[in-house]
Structures are given as C-alpha cells and as structure tokens.
Amino acid sequence: MVIPPAPSPEPPPTSRAQYLTDSHLSDERHPHVLVVDDDALIRQLLGDELVEEGYTVSIAKDGEAALEKVATDPPDLILLDVMMPKLDGFEVCRRLKSDERTILIPVVMLTALMAIEERIKSIEAGADDFLSKPHNRQELLTRVRSLLRLKRHTDELEHAETVLFSLALSVEAKDPFTNDHCDRIARYSLALGENLGLPREHLKALQRGAILHDLGKIGVPDAILLKPGPLTDAERAVIRQHPVIGERICSPLKSLRLVLPIIRHHHERWNGTGYPDGLAGGAIPLTARILQCVDVFDALTIERPYKPAYTQEQAVAIMREEVAKGWQDPNLAETFMALLKNGDASA
Q: Where in the chain are the domains?
C-alpha cells in the first residue's frame, strides 16, 4: 500500500529512510515501524514524522491488515490505534502478545479515549506503552526511541541464544547415533511437563534445556565423546564435567536462568549418586529430573556402538530397574511410563 500524498505543498522528506510498500520491503537496517490506524490523515502524519527521524515505515488501515503485515515482515515496533473496524487495537495487541513469534515486538497504543479504564485495558492486552490523541511529536519520538533501544537489546540476546543452540546442535551432529535426540527429548519433556501441570515458563525452559543440556560436551575431546567402547575412569571424569561446562557457557544469559538447573543437574540421581553435585531426592530441580527421565528412555531406544536399540517395552523394563536402584524419581518415572503406554508421549 502506498502512502497518499501529504496535504502539505512541501516536497516529501529526503531522509535516508522511506515508506514500505507491499512490493518494496527495505533490506536496510533502519528501525522498521508499523503504523496502524483507520484514519488516513493520522497514518500520513505519523508516517511523515517517523520518516523524518530516519525510520522505515509501513502502514495498515485496520487490525486484520496489521496482523497480515506482521506475519510477512515483522516490524521493530508497532503504533496501534485502539478504535478500528474489524479488529480493534486491544484484540490485535492480545493476539500479538500471545504469539511466541511476535510477543517481543513493542506495541504503543494510540487512543483518543482518556478514561483510565481504557489505559488499563491497553496494559492488560499486553501493550508496552500508550499515547493519547492528538499526540505530542516529541513525546512520540522519545517513546519510540526508548522502546526501539530495548528491542535492539532483546534482539541481541536472541541472537546469542541462537548461537548457543547452533553450537549445541553441532555437538549432537558429531555423533551419528544421536541424530534428532534433542528434538525427541524436547517432545517427551513437554508431554511430561504438561501432564504435571508445569507453568508455561518452565515448559519453555524444558524445550530449551532439551537442546542445550549437552552443550558442555563441546569441551570434551572427540576421542572420548565418540569412543565405541567402555570409558576409563579418567575419561569418565572428563565426561562428567560437561554439565558444569554447559552451565558456565550459558550462565551469562539471564534469559536462560530457568534452563541452567536443567543443564547442570540432568545427570543427578534420586539416591544422590549422580553428578556433578551429588544432589538427592527433591533437592534435584524438577525440570532436571524430567529431562533426565526422558533422556534415559531415548538413550535406551537408539542404537549405540556398544548396544542395540531397545524396544519401548525393553526400555521401560530397564527404567524400572533403575528406579529400583534409586537412580530415578519413582513417581516421575511411573508417570512418564504411563504416558508412553497410553501413547501420550511419542517422538
């Protein structure tokens, strides 16, 4: 959609940024702001002010069009009118903030309604800020700059996480016998976590932990990591350092704070004979116990140089033996085995 000509006779701004049209999506990394308003004059005014400040701007005239644009070309920030046809701003904001792909895009609600109830409704919908109409130019630009600065830091953190995930998957790829191991235990972990009623943030931590739990093996020599036969005591000591190494690599990222206990403690045992800290019973974080349980099952059901791939029934029998030895949380193991039996935990 092309911005209509400005009513002013002055020539259009010659800034380094520009409006986006449906056929032209800028590859430059000027911050991209999506303006959503059913009033063409307001779209024009906001767009001109933002372009003059060096931002790239796209527009949408209603809520449905806004969601379509976000899906095809996610902006760095959204200025969202409240009162619009089809979908109002509250509903658009709720949808954006309930989607993992768009939850971190800052949303500024624009409203001519001054009632405190409407502002509270904006906050409840997940809005990051709000401005009253008619807006003050300086206030608008100040808030946009502030939220875009925060978005930039968030993007940098996401990039750092992506690098760690790539490293973790490269470690998995070294061993042809562990192909898709992380994906499988992520699905098993989620099934078990959901059955236990874990909150959303812990389920997300389980997903991330499934990928990152063996990241520390990047510090283990391939000669040990890929050894086809039994390990020596010295080699076993090296392997047992990988949870500590993995935790150390991930610890600078506060976004992974709920994942760190999974990485460090997924080799602890219920009776305290595990590593690296010898935790026992309930002292082992629940999410780490969940990952340990499903990790053991998956390891049993894949082929290794020193063992065949066991059937589900054989793997369950071995897990019961481990429970009898005190290695696993008995209640957790029984819950997972029941999910397997009922077909509610499949890879």
A: 32-154, 175-341
